[in-house]
Amino acid sequence: MAEGSTAASQLSPTIKTLAAHTGFSIGTISKALRGSPVVTEQTRGAILAAAKELGYQANARGMALRTGKTYQATVLMPLTSAAGYEWDGVEYTQILSGISQALDGSDYQLSVHGYRSFDDACAIARRVADQKLADGLIFSGVLAEDARIAMLTQSGFPFVSLGRCREPLVYAHVDVDNEWAAHAATARLIAGGHRRVALINADQRFSYALDRIDGFVRAFREAGVDPSLDLIAGGDLSTRFGRDSTLALRGLPQPPTALVCVNESTTLGVLSALDALGLGVGEDVDVIAYDDINVSAYFTPPVTTLYQPIEVLGRRLGEFLLRLMAGDNAAQLTEVFRPQLIARQADNLGGRLSRSHP
Amino acid sequence: MAEGSTAASQLSPTIKTLAAHTGFSIGTISKALRGSPVVTEQTRGAILAAAKELGYQANARGMALRTGKTYQATVLMPLTSAAGYEWDGVEYTQILSGISQALDGSDYQLSVHGYRSFDDACAIARRVADQKLADGLIFSGVLAEDARIAMLTQSGFPFVSLGRCREPLVYAHVDVDNEWAAHAATARLIAGGHRRVALINADQRFSYALDRIDGFVRAFREAGVDPSLDLIAGGDLSTRFGRDSTLALRGLPQPPTALVCVNESTTLGVLSALDALGLGVGEDVDVIAYDDINVSAYFTPPVTTLYQPIEVLGRRLGEFLLRLMAGDNAAQLTEVFRPQLIARQADNLGGRLSRSHP
DNA sequence: AAGGAAAATAAAAACGTTTTTACTACGAAG
DNA sequence: CTTCGTAGTAAAAACGTTTTTATTTTCCTT
């Protein structure tokens, strides 16, 4: 019976199939495919031809077992905080999209791990590094003092973070210049005459939340004005949070006349709250938002934004991780993006405020 | 030198370490860990204790090589169509979140493959199945005649689709009752007096776009009214598409007095266009949207929605895939969700239309 | 008490690679 | 004409499992 050959033609060809087909040994086949210089050009040609003819594809599991590599790049993704399916984390689609594009064509597969809390994320990161579940790691939501960065830096496990911690460590990262962005937004509002500016911010555990406060405060300092620190709200970046904090802030004795918003889902909540309060944007209150998924242009009314497409950051994250896994030095793999200011409003309440303030 | 033992204590323990530690052979260790009935309860206890003591974790690559399984569940994710980073695909965060939650605790890892076109998705699906790059597959964006479903059904590769094709095939799937949803929205508008209703729909290659048209038409038929087929727009589900198609439709000689929108990013574009045209929602035009990420509540003005949290569908997708990979029958693994109607407007233009139409 | 069945474990083979080591020609040098 | 280095390839070992086959032990039966 030709059972053997029939079965073999069903299954995908292995290095052994190639050996039988070409007459070379499996060791030579492997070297030829890996581009080792010890095999002659002629044999390599023959082997490559046979590989193409049979549609040979290296078995990732065999390679992985022998080399200890996994050919996996893992991304830590925050699971939506779930309470009532509140809208947050939408930008992750574009982050993943960017990373996926960068990894496309490489030998690496993109895998995703969800986490529910920071401790959860730490535990997963540790497990991935200790057990070598992946060859590299990408994560975001960096804290001022981030245990993941400390741990991975020490163990030498390749990773790229979206965001910088506040410890003096050397590691590959991609970030947005949040200090600059918050400063730009706040300074613009102060120049427009505003003195009571709110900052709808992320939780202050996050490093970038602190960066934004820094920029916010610097803008006031540079203008010689006391910063409205009592108008800084911190929370999850859901739409509900944007709405609730706006309602609360506007209920204060000296409510804000302008708001700086940390992301687009929060902004939607802010706008919703302002509408509910009967306040007109550009008339009774000004709003400047940060946008990384290009949606603010469709808000009504359109608001001034600091725009940085996050897909670009995602792509860079993937590129950096590839280079890191190829042996590049982490110190060289850092980039901080400065968003673009898109002015859609005058942000001076139609000039009214500048008159009342000297 | 104690080099050997030192190095061994550094590396994670293997089945050999356990063998040396307990005195049993590696075969027995493997059987004990896998719960085989041939090993006595006493030895299993000893081995389990040693495994716990040494922190043993099975090496996935070794298992994968031997068993041919990969312990990977792969999701096909559409890459954002990218032209100008238009906002779309945001719901994928929640789909992945749901799947990740379902896979949590199982032996399976979630991996993500991005694709740029339907052909791309087909090629990837075929590669995953042929080369057994994963043990199961999840995908969405099902076409009326979907090559992936046909191919995977035939090859018997485990998969769950988000959406149903229009061919009479038996396969595991999760879906929304789009026909019902479109019917509910359209019928409500017709009951409110509308006769010129627009349907801002997905591209008609997609099966669910056809389902919505079916429901849309049925509502008209049941009311004894000619369906406004000329007001059906199909396109990508970006915000820009919502805006552009609304502007175009309202430019017609007999413009729609109401719009049914296919998802929330499109709805945002629709609302933006209506605002730009100076049309008030609930006054000059009514809008009913489909929402799967719980954001419509914050639109201003709020619109009536058909709400179905997509994270729930994601979780079910993961559950179904796990059961499928465990050997369950695909015929049993189907569920169609019916969204919830959340009426935030009267959707009858304040009663004005019902007066003019009998 | 010896034989044998059943139970428990050990040993070996296998999965598909890469890498190290061993072999075989062949040409150059003495 | 022999010896040796070298280039090219083959053979074998290893990665960590699971599974099949072989061996040992135990205990029952006659």
TrEMBL record, chains A, B:
Keyword Transcription appears in the UniProt entry: yes
Domain (HTH lacI-type): residue spans on this chain: 13-67
Keyword rRNA processing included in the entry's annotation: no
InterPro entries: HTH_LacI, LacI/GalR-like_sensor, Lambda_DNA-bd_dom_sf, Peripla_BP_I
Protein name: LacI family transcriptional regulator
Key words of the record: DNA-binding, Transcription, Transcription regulation
Pfam families: LacI, Peripla_BP_3
CDD domains: PBP1_RafR-like
Domain of life: Bacteria
Organism: Mesorhizobium atlanticum
SUPFAM superfamilies linked: lambda repressor-like DNA-binding domains, Periplasmic binding protein-like I
Recorded coiled-coil stretches: none
Gene Ontology molecular-function annotations: DNA-binding transcription factor activity; transcription cis-regulatory region binding
PROSITE patterns per UniProt: HTH_LACI_2
